[in-house]
Amino acid sequence: MFSLPFTLSILFLSELASAAETFHIPLQRRAQQTHDLDYYSAAADNLRAKYNIGSAAGASTGRRRAAVENIPVINQGTTIQYGSGAVAGSINRDVVTMSNFTIQNQVFLGVDRLQSGLLDGQTSGILGLAFQTIASTGGVPFWQNLLNDDQLESPEFSFWLARSDSRGDDSAPGGVFTLGGTNSSLYSGEIEFLDMPGSRPSYWLLPLQSVTVQGERVSIATGNSALSAIDTGTTLIGGPSDDVASIWAQVPGATQAANQQGFWTFPCSTEVNVTMSFGGRSWAISSEDMNLGPVTTSGRTCAGAIFDLNMGSNIPAGSGPSWVVGATFLKNVYSVYRANPPSIGFAELSTAAGGTGTAPGSRSTAGAGSILPKAGLASALSFISIWTLL
């Protein structure tokens, strides 16, 4: 059963954490693997299903599909679709403790069926960090319960997602997740907060305002057609067909991938330079993050990290996010998610986090603001995958 290892991992976390009301969790990167375009294409299909986009999605009425990846829906059962697969089980309530934080009557899904390969020996649970309005269980998410119970020092959580290095083992640090505030050692300057649209938060959303490619501004849709889910649980960046085509049209030699619809390839010798703005500053994406690696044995053609999310389908404006912005972008910024008022903040990475900025002085919301991941601690924290948008 899913619930027992999940409980044990939470208790293990509580032994390692401090008593502060701001909780810093070093993230561990899984062992580095070389992925081909088939892998990313499958991940894109799962992402479309997660956001009910295109042919991979269920009915537009929002009704649950009869089966997801060979996991049948049975009486009194819930099937949940994640970005990398699906699980099913029963809804439970129990005491959940993480560090000094405790919720007495937390709703969660006890999983007894899951898609093969979704969870490995290092992961025994998934902790969602979006709002209750889109919770598949209907329950209040753990972080919102903590906020409602005045257990958090600040109505925020934040992420530094580390870029992978050359190490091939599973000891490489993956970044830091901070619950209840920020970690001031990981960013430079002020955090630029942007208010989320709408009055009823669901996903963490911002409208994409502008994109540049190779220094030139690209024409993209605006308004509801530009709503973007900022998703730490997603690897790449997916967007509307026309906008994605406009982006790759600015890259010399870029063409649609021959065998993987929705993806684009370009000469590996080309540095793809992209910036994105959500209403404030423009944030540059490293050319390293834009390149998924060679797709040919010659090593001359590489795959791009921005793909066609809706595959040309006609998605009504306002029915959901048009963009899903994942780690390809988020590895280049320090991101903060504020519940009240609902907003998302970005800041420049400090040198300690691989950026070029100098970290500001210690902030009260940072607690032990100099906390950085250490391999020994991170290995004990790898039981739980933390996804912002579930």
UniProtKB/TrEMBL annotation:
The keyword Signal applies. Transmembrane segments: none annotated. It comes from the Eukaryota. One of its GO terms (molecular function) is aspartic-type endopeptidase activity. Residues 1-19 form the signal peptide. Residues 1-347 form the Peptidase A1 domain. Keywords: Signal. One of its GO terms (biological process) is proteolysis. CDD domains: pepsin_like (cd05471). Pfam families: Asp (PF00026). Belongs to the peptidase A1 family. This is Peptidase A1 domain-containing protein.
